[in-house]
Amino acid sequence: MQQVLSFVESNKERYLAQLKELLAIPSVSSQSTHNADTRGCAEWVATEMRAIGMNNVQIFETPGHPIVYSEWMGAPGKPTVLFYGHYDVQPVDPLNLWTSPPFEATIRGDNLYARGSADDKGQIFIHFKSIEAYMKNQGKLPVNIKMLIEGEEEVGSANLDNFVKEHKELLKGDLVLISDSSMFAKGIPSVCYGLRGLAYMEVEVTGPNTDLHSGSFGGSLHNPIQALSEMIASLHDKNGKITVKGFYNDVRPLSNVERAAFKKLPWNDKKYAKGLGLKQLYGEKGFTTLERLWARPTLECNGIWGGYTGEGAKTVLPAKAFAKISMRIVPDQDSTKIARLFENHMKKIAPKTVQVKVTALHGGEPAITPIKSPGVQAAVAALEKGFGKKPLYQREGGSIPIVVQFKKLLGLDTVLLGFGLPDENAHAPNEYINLDNFFGGIRTSVHFYNELPKYWKNK
Amino acid sequence: MQQVLSFVESNKERYLAQLKELLAIPSVSSQSTHNADTRGCAEWVATEMRAIGMNNVQIFETPGHPIVYSEWMGAPGKPTVLFYGHYDVQPVDPLNLWTSPPFEATIRGDNLYARGSADDKGQIFIHFKSIEAYMKNQGKLPVNIKMLIEGEEEVGSANLDNFVKEHKELLKGDLVLISDSSMFAKGIPSVCYGLRGLAYMEVEVTGPNTDLHSGSFGGSLHNPIQALSEMIASLHDKNGKITVKGFYNDVRPLSNVERAAFKKLPWNDKKYAKGLGLKQLYGEKGFTTLERLWARPTLECNGIWGGYTGEGAKTVLPAKAFAKISMRIVPDQDSTKIARLFENHMKKIAPKTVQVKVTALHGGEPAITPIKSPGVQAAVAALEKGFGKKPLYQREGGSIPIVVQFKKLLGLDTVLLGFGLPDENAHAPNEYINLDNFFGGIRTSVHFYNELPKYWKNK
Predict the structure, then answer these.
(1) Does A458 score more than 70 pLDDT?
(2) B300 touches chain A (CB under 8 A)
(3) pTM value?
(4) Would you call the peptide bond into A110 cis, given omega within 30 degrees of 0 as the criterion?
């Protein structure tokens, strides 16, 4: 191990030079003018994989951008890590807000600025370099690794599902590892072990069969905007709890270990509220803000519309009002069941003065990788060694669909080992990766592959 | 009188021929390609006024379309009627939905179809013909008449206010007469003696200082759409009463005479609801539908918007949500006071988790011409004689701004003597005037000018 880590230490300059090469390729997957660049990037990744000692390197064609695969299976009896990442990047507009050109990686202070530096080229490169360090010094890895690097993450991974379905045998492994997220804060390494799911609904409330004049008809019938507002208002009680019947039935309670772990994270409600321009936060009583954000289900209005929304005054009493309402769900809630409960509830509370139609637009399941699982424990040990600091546990309020798909299609839990920072500007101008995190990430990756078999044995 | 009425009876064919001439002029005030037609129509009106014996006929230029004025002041000691109407018409699109060409008046069944037949050329023409009948047979009128026919009613009467302000002496009179509305129903002549006013507001609710990801932030703060919905939901209590503090303080209660008058009108809640596609009506408890529509103030959401309103799902937790909310007000409420009460109320009920901004967009006062006033009583007597049927009393839920302006600028009450029908398609294809109403209208107009001095004397 010492040899491997020394190698990392003495190759920093070379790492940066190579990373700059990768970041120079404008592999913007959403822009067809960059199709050749995106393909070129897939080839760069394949070449790099061969150079660091990966085997069976293949570029798989898809109807969109190619998927790059490789493996090193020389550790029989040891766990197999399926590493997932992406080589495509977001567009760079507005270009004039970049301090240095997005495809000319530039170091300012402790950060390296470039499109893709954090999301996700910099983070896949971290793992290339830890693998290389093992191979160059020991000629082998402590675990088996399969790498799956796609080129369409920033455009919805439209072809990934099919690829996974068609290559279940090839992708067989013991756990998924993804480095495409952020640490809790600078200097605070963390492991993310849970994600929320989603049930996204559209509600249509119909009153009269046509738009009416609010003077000639106002006062005789139930305005659908009013009816919709009344229904929305009733979806939370005064304690901020969601009133949809049966909504909380399948919610896995937070364990004492988790609540204690969240409490260790540096957090200040006042500072958080101030940053958002709010005088007061809001949410379900009996839970801290982080608990509400990560481990409690929520119901949010994502959009509402109806009647006249232009400039000035129009005295219309509209026929219809609409809302988009989504629920973030947590283990062990099920998006299909929650969608059905919501629909039933809305129909039940709808007044007889209007008609209500509810459509499920989109759903995704929550995911959790138990804190005590060998993957998470290996990540914790690796982060402590890589950053010299005990990492904290966190969950994430959003969803990462691919995590759910790996669980569904391959039966694998995912370890999220993020080396970005919350303000890294992943989809905005001046994206960066912090250099301490970059080099700490390589060390952590080295340790992770070394630690995993130990924890796996005790599984 | 018999002579005058016989003249009307024997000139029906000529009336229709002349009306067709007026209706053939495409005086669409909103379309500049019709500017010459609109001016031509003003000239047609002026020529007609001269022909029927009106004096001092003048075409007043305005920054928009001209105003036509004339007078007959040969009845000293008798009341002076200021008759208001408009010679401009709505556009005709979609043309393909017209059964016969909009500017070629065509009789089908009992109706004459053409743009402007009811709104308002047909109705001003009714008064031209009753004046003509008096002048041709008696050489004089029973009252003094001033006629003010504008060409911008369909585009908001932008230049009328200034004209009235600048010609207060010229327009001096005792009451305003307008025939630009509808009877309660076919075969049911009615006098409209009251209009509601308006206080139109915009509400802006701000939560966080930027749009947020509903996964990463949902559960920690008050969604402004939810907050706005909660505020809107609270504006009516379970009896349909408006909860804005002080809102009902200045509402003049319905008199027993009025409630009894409304009850005489043929009305069926079930039929009304069915026509609007509703299973159940809604409104303030303790009042009939017509009372709620005409004589009770209301609060309606005219528009609402916030967050994502496009196709599909976007997981945004928006920074802002907006609503347009208007209140129809009744005598003796005041639009400025109501706007202030609303603003105060919204700020009072706003939760601390959001900020609320309220803007008054538009206001107008309610109007009422007492049932016992000579103008209304003369209209009742005239309708009974003109249609052979006792007319009923009604009010109107909407506002007619010019009525409020005549009261404000000239101190005059208005009598609304409408000969249209509720389904006349005034702003739609296949506008028509019913021929019984047209000829009944001419007889009623003849009687009105004859009856008015009698009631005026007893004032």
Answers:
(1) no
(2) yes
(3) 0.89
(4) no
